[in-house]
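User: structure tokens for this one?
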Amino acid sequence: MPSPIVISCFDLTTTLVQPWAEAGYLCYCVDLQHPPGETREGNIIRVGADVREWLPPYGPVAFAAFFPPCTDTAISGRAHFRRKGLSSVIKALQLFEWSARLAAWCQCPYFIENPVSTVSTYWRPPDFRFDPCDYAGYLPAERQLSEAYTKRTCLWTGGGFQLPEHKAVVPILGSKMHNLPDSKNRANLRSATPAGFARAVFEAHFHASPPGNSSA
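Assistant:
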């Protein structure tokens, strides 16, 4: 029987899967911004592909995460909705729907992440909401300050997903992500997964021995 894997779609940073990879799981991170094909580094495989044209390899999935693009659904950008037109929001919602379908297919704990967005109107309200500072306490003390900020994030979940216990720090950095200057990397910086949240999710769902996937 193949060992369980972890998948994370629309994932450029691979932050979400790093605790799983350290525990021995083979992790697939799919994003068009990765080099085409598969590039393996230890237990993390970066897949440069359109997630709508990719399926996980055969075998059980231990955990799945999805970060569909939010530029055209986030309420923070509502002033630009009319200028962008219907096609933009339709494409964004289709990617979100694809995430929901693949998540259900995986038959494992999962979440789909987006900021406060129109998904709540077109589909259903999120199951959970959090700010990065809520989980910064999972990081070593010297790294906690880097995530002492607020950025309201929503999770649509299923498959037995458990919201991790908060280990909050005071958000002394305020809404630092909203104040980032314009740059070609601004969208990626704003959408990067907080490492404290990644660690918290791992600790809430990792209950078994490592599956035996060793680093290459």
